[in-house]
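User: Here's a structure from my thesis project, written as structure tokens. My advisor, Dr. K., wants to see whether a designed sequence matches the one we expressed. Can you design one independently, without my sequence as a hint?
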């Protein structure tokens, strides 16, 4: 569990634009899906919404947010860890395993999907449940993305992040986004669905920036890599010129370091060599083109930096587990 109590908008050591490139490639989408009002005593189970063991789990990824507008409750994650949360808190569950929350003395836990009712905003259900006492209100949203990265962003995150927007030091931008989400859900004005989608995406990006900016020095993963001076320079080069005939020697020279240092840092932070990362990045870009357009395979192979369709197809299947044709038709 990670609590982010401090300013996440003005951080001198924030990751450079490599993070923006990664986020563009995963094509984030999001929205609000629930307006929940619970009265004490209550106990509710929220189901698992992403299963990494599913055959298509690598195609899409869903993370869940709980924004607490008022009241308080206890939330218990799948590993049994409990968190006391209340009004102003933003909770992000990157992999959305089953979890439960409650307030007051209760022995019965209702299954959230069984309680849903249609609300005034399309796609945003209402959930009203409890014993009639003090109210705790949740607004819940999601972020969906392609989970195809060489070092997936979401695997760099802890099981739950908690941001205390009621803290005086939290960024005005994040607090403003949360306030706007509450207002849009309450007003249910025309266009609310679109606006809530954009607001959830902004909320995710702001929470992610704050977490990345405060990683301890021994952290690993994509977010840690974007904050490393050597690796981030190399990543920027690979991302901006994926078709180039890169070698470790050439990449190290242009990143201003040695081959040994570059290899060591890539393997320590990302668990891959620079050339392995490049292969995954090229396949990520190619997979996006295959799914989103009508380009011929030969053109996509060339733009991904491969001299032949056969070489590209072998690399694609090695990374993705299926052929380019099967991916395009999935």
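Assistant: Designed independently from the structure alone:
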């Amino acid at each position: 569990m990670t609590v982010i109590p401090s300013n996440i908008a003005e951080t001198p050591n924030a990751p450079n634009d490599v993070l923006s490139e990664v986020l563009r490639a995963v094509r984030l989408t999001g929205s609000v899906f629930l307006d929940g009002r619970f009265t004490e005593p209550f106990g509710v189970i929220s189901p698992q919404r992403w299963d990494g063991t599913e055959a298509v789990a690598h195609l899409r990824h869903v993370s869940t947010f709980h924004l607490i507008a008022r009241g308080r409750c206890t939330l218990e994650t799948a590993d049994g860890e409990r968190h006391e949360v209340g009004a102003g808190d933003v909770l992000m569950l990157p992999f959305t395993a089953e979890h439960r929350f409650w307030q007051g003395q209760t022995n019965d836990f209702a299954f959230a999907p069984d309680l849903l009712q249609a609300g005034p905003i399309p796609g945003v259900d209402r959930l009203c449940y409890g014993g009639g006492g003090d109210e705790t209100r949740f607004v819940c949203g999601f972020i969906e993305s392609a989970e195809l990265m060489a070092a997936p962003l979401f695997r760099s995150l802890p099981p739950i992040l908690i941001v205390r927007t009621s803290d005086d030091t939290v960024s005005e931008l994040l607090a403003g986004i949360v306030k706007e989400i509450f207002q849009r859900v309450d007003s249910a004005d025309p266009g609310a669905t679109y606006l809530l989608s954009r607001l959830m995406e902004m909320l995710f990006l702001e929470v992610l920036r704050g977490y990345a900016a405060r990683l301890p020095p021994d952290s690993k993963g994509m977010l840690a890599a974007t904050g490393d001076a050597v690796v981030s320079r190399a990543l920027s080069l690979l991302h901006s010129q994926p078709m180039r005939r890169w070698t470790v020697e050439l990449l190290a020279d242009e990143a201003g370091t040695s081959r040994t240092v570059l290899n060591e840092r890539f393997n320590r932070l990302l668990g891959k060599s620079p050339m392995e990362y490049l292969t995954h990045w090229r396949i990520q870009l190619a997979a996006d083109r295959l799914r989103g357009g009508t380009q011929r395979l030969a053109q996509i192979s060339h733009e991904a930096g491969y001299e032949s369709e056969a070489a590209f197809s072998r690399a694609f299947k090695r990374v993705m587990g299926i052929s380019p044709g099967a991916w395009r038709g999935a």
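When you compare it with your expressed construct, this may help: The radius of gyration is 22 Å.
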